[in-house]
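User: Predict the full complex structure for these chains.
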Amino acid sequence: MKLPINWLKDYIDPKLSMEGLIDRLTMAGLEVETVEGAGKDTVLELEITPNRPDLLSILGLAREVGAITGKAVKFPKIKSQKLKRLKGLIQVENKKDCRRYIGTLIKNVKIAGASEGMKDRLAAAGTNAINNAVDITNFVLMEMGQPLHAFDYDKLAGGKIVVRRARPGESLVTLDGVERKLDPSILIIADVEKPVAIAGIMGGRETEITPATQNILLESAHFDMGLIRRACRSLGLRSESSYRFERNVDFDGVLAAANRATDLLLSSTGGHLAGREEISIKVAATAPRIKVRPGEIKALLGIEVTAPKVRTWLARLGFKAEFKAGMLTVTPPANRTDITQEVDVIEEIARMTGFDRLPSKMPVIKSANIVLDRRPRELKEKIRQAMAAAGVDEIITLSMISIKALAKTKIGQMPLIKVFNPLSQDQELMRPVLLPSFLQVALTNINRGQKDLRFFEIGKTYAPDGERDSLGILLTGRRRQDWRVSPKETVDIYDLKGVVEHVLHIGGVKAGYADINVPAFDPACGASIVIDGKPQGVLGRVDRDVLNNWDIKHQDIYFAALYLEPILSCPKGLVRYGPISEFPAIVRDVSLAVEKSIPYQKIEDICRKQGGEILKSVQFIEQYLGDKIQPGDKGLVFSCCYQSNTRTLREDEVTDVHERLVQALVSELRARRR
Amino acid sequence: MTWNFLEIEAQIKAEAQAIGTAQDLETFRLKYLGKKGLVTAVFASLGQAAPADKAAIGKGANDLKKLVDSLMTERAGWINSVKKIDERVDISLPGTAPALGHAHLLTQTLQEITSIFERMGFVSAETPEIETEFNNFTGLNIPIDHPSRDAFDTFYLDTEDPSSRGRRLLLRSHTSPGQVRIMKAHRPPLAVIVPGRVYRPDAVDASHSFMFHQVEGLLVDEKVSFCELKGLLTEFCRRFFGPKVIMRFRPHFFPFTEPSAEVDINAEILGIQRKKWLEILGCGMVNPRVFEAAGYPKGQYKGLAFGMGVERMAMLKYGINDIRLFYENDARFLSQF
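Assistant: Here is the predicted structure of the two-chain assembly.
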């Protein structure tokens, strides 16, 4: 809302410096966003909150400045006119759409240019001068906040106004020369044949006031705020008028503005008043009476505001206030529709006192009634720390993706949540999985020359049964940047598995791995992560076709995803101290050749079964897949560590156990010693 | 026999200057102090010297020995230090511990905000992003016809709200529905913050994103006043922006609080010149209608509430001028913090 200071001074002199005025307005809730010069005038741009439509006019602002400063407001004098009541001029189809319509007919006008004074005023408020009649409607709009429209009466077919919804297929060329397609969701002003204006938004070109206009029909009306707002949105059209109608105009102001504009039009155009017709709903004259307990003022604001002060503030705001038996009863002015309950009145008292004058003290903070499980947050925190230690950077990606991104990632057949009103296809879907988001981030970085990437995100994935905390990890490029060793080694599946194991360890979760059957992953290099018999995640090398679809060339990408719920909810028992053995350990290395299809886990399981209680640990050392071994086999090297907590083991008893253990591997797995 | 002590002394000093290695040092020692060395010879000449010369020769010999000794010590020290310089490591070469990863700046900022409130005694609770119209609007005293309910200002989902037939579920447009959920589930006293993602259909540019993060705060008890709202948020700003921060509470409007305020801080504290004040958060006293919607007995409780944008706080504090940087995740951005 623009406030030209010279215009304001027509009604009130705040007797404040510019800086002082800006500060007082801002601290009363009318934030001054910019200050600009306009000719000889200075114009303040104010942010008016949506609860205060009464401030969308110069007079409204003058009233508020009066309340803030205590200075008197000079209201413009309106000459009273003898009015002839007309009939059959105005027809309103539905009074829910249009609660009040006042049509005033002024005949034999002379249309001319605007006066210089008027031009300056309108220019400062951001409106161009057009001609004396149109300028007056704009002037009164700015002055009083009630939008008006002037029609060239002779161009209205049938000499009549009909307020109705547009019919399918109707259209109108508006004042800006654009043809607007209309539909029944839009309220229009029509004559007996066709639309002549879009109600509350913009007039039509055909019936506008021109230098040839002789007779004017002046419209002052009250249209439904929601209707105007939706029409603005669907037409993509806004105006000074719609801005005010959207926020609701004052019902009484409709008449006051009609009178003010009529007065100005008669004296400026030399026309004569032919008469007026008003269509209106009946309004019960019941002003609200709001009870305010003085104790409540203190309870809410934390300080005592004396009764005389309260009286002064409320009087300045135009509120009627009666003190009776320790109780305050308040009636706000009709245009203050935002004041409906006790706190609203107390808020006005606080605003007038000045928020900066209210003292400040720390509250007593008690939250005894909420006992929340702290574990999920703590675990997420620990996962973040472990990721940082593993050199993995955290990313935060958008929760919405496109269906196309899902297809590119070969993810199909998932229950999906779609966004009903996305801004673009990029946001049409709540992501069911994290992988597309990660591939997008990898692509962005690779395209910018950053190819060694280690990323994780703790984010949500979405399905019709709800949203789930999920963890994604992506590794690609070189393993480590150490200038002392060859820089060529790239990450592989075991780097990724190591990071995943960190996470499982933090949660105290035991997981197994099973074959993977997800098209996004290379079936030879991946696994699903199984917790408590249920698949809860995946890890693996992203399928080459998927990477091609994403335009990621020349490098492999390793990705893991894990639902966090089974980890966050797993009650990790308190870790108890286990004694550290004082007795020496005996370590025996084993080198075997086994069929490639035998997983190492099987070997470790057999060792544990055979090793008994003296087998402390089994440590994997090396896998050999070269040509010094029979085709179809692999070489495995590992060591067994024997130790007791209570005595020194004898060499021969270790040899016995170890020999039995290796023999079991040979017979059960058809392993050969190497 | 007579000795030209001055000449010998000059010769010793000149030769000592040329000593560069341990070998040079040994040659030098042998030449003067060895069995056939010059200084040894001077001492030996004492035996044949005239009694009158003995004192002078004796003193001269001792002085020469002292000179040679001190020069040798000096040169030995020098040789040693040269050797050490040769073997010294270049400590300016990069260290090679595994690189550390970085928490995202938004996570760091969020943790900074939440930990300030947690240390004051607030509890942090997360509530769902997929919400009902009741929690996002109705329960917060946002009227049925309010513009923010339009599909232009809120993302709706293709899924029906199971608790309200014919109504769609939506993506919360602010973290305030967390207030409704917390109050429905718990009785005061309450001191809770609700951090998380929120969504609004804004076209993306340097200062808008259709997804961003907020932290909601709520304190409810039998006696809470506006003074305490001021006190709490003043303390927060001092801890977050530093003790010299200057704040102002400017009246504003939110349907779920009354009175409502926006908080500005002095731009100077962040080194920003182009403006005097920067808006950082919205706050107010909980509107009695919100308590009513939560089912609390009328008039029994008072509360304060506030909400802030995490992106905005991070952008102000760390001088970031484009919100898109947060979601683009360029490795060079991530590793700066």
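Chain B has a mean pLDDT of 92.
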